Amino acid sequence: MSLYRPLCIGSLSLPGNLFLAPVAGYTDRAFRSICIEQGADFTCTELVSSEALVRGGVKTQTLFRRAHNESRYAVQLFGSDPDVMYRATAMLAPQRPDLVDINCGCPVPKVVKTGSGAALTRDPERLARIVEAVIRASREHLNNTPVSVKIRSGWDAQTINYRESADVALAAGASMIALHARTRAQGYEGRSDWSHIADLVSRVSVPVAGSGDLFAPQDAAAMLEQTACAAVMFARGALGNPFIFAETRSLLLTGSYAIPPLQDRIAVAFRQLALLANNVGEKSACLEMRKHFCAYTHGVAGGAELRRRLLHADTIDAYRALFALLPQSVH
Q: Is the pLDDT at 1 greater than 80, yes or no?
């Protein structure tokens, strides 16, 4: 069987198993749209605060708007109050997401201190109530859209409890488990332990999506082969490199892949800038795209000086003027 294959998550059918993971501050509508153009089979929003959503935060509502080419997408919610999570899920109805994902893995202190994110894996009773609440809201307001849960390996090296967290989520009705094979204490440092993914795959009957240390097509192929996970979720490996989806698909199907030339990569970055400007206006888009352009130009000759200048670009014309200095770039 090919490592690249379709899969089903509850009632949701997907054409392939290469996913864009939710990444706070990066996986906005414009970037998700670009990733789909570059071959992502499924995308997920940034994590959305259930508390902010039910309070009517306008900025929060923009986080889960569907991109024009997102025929299938997930919205990720985080929170610690089952009732608020129920109400937030119900509010997603106008967007008709294809999956609702519950964040039980975010290690960021401002999320954890509220009892959300990775803190939920330390409170299995609350985790169960939240999954049940989201599933009930999905059944009553979202036409029974599948619900998934994203977890980490555990709180720290002494508390590896992904098995218990997954069991609780599945007993409550989750249709997929996504496992980032690091602990909360690790944050994004050190190595992820893919043996946890393989172990979870062997223990559960629902799809398991693997995450952690996927920075190249070869990494995705290795994770799929070593763990037998149903899907891989690219996070930091896709930032500034949405091409990783098409490259991985090519590697899995043909055994090789081609890296796009610099000219094509920069052209895609400018397309992302244009999409973002259309969404939020040119000024905000230019400020937001500074970090993305820094990622797109990683490894480019003279890139350090270019990235220093990028931090001052505040118009699309300013970006074009900077990239006109690169002999192979598009302007």
A: no
Domain parsing of the chain, residue ranges = 7-254, 262-323
pLDDT band at 327 (very low <50, low <70, confident <90, very high): low
**What pLDDT score was predicted for residue 51?**
94
Angle between helix axes 194-203 and 217-227 (nearest 10 degrees) is: 40
Angle between helices 316-323 and 282-296 (to 10 degrees): 30
Domain at 262-323: CATH architecture: Orthogonal Bundle (1.10)
| 7-254, CATH topology level | TIM Barrel (3.20.20)
Alpha helices for the chain (secondary structure H)? 29-37, 50-54, 58-63, 82-90, 109-112, 124-141, 162-171, 194-203, 217-227, 244-254, 262-280, 282-296, 303-310, 316-323
Which residue is catalytic, options 35, 104, 106, 229? 106
- Pairing status of strand 12-14 against strand 7-9: antiparallel
For 45-69, b where at least 16 C-beta lie within 10 A, e where not — what string?
bbbbbbbbbbeeeeebeebbebbee
Instruction: Let me know if 35 is a catalytic residue.
Output: no
| CA 37 to chain CA centroid, nearest Å | 16
- Residue 151 backbone dihedrals phi, psi, to 5 degrees: -125, 175
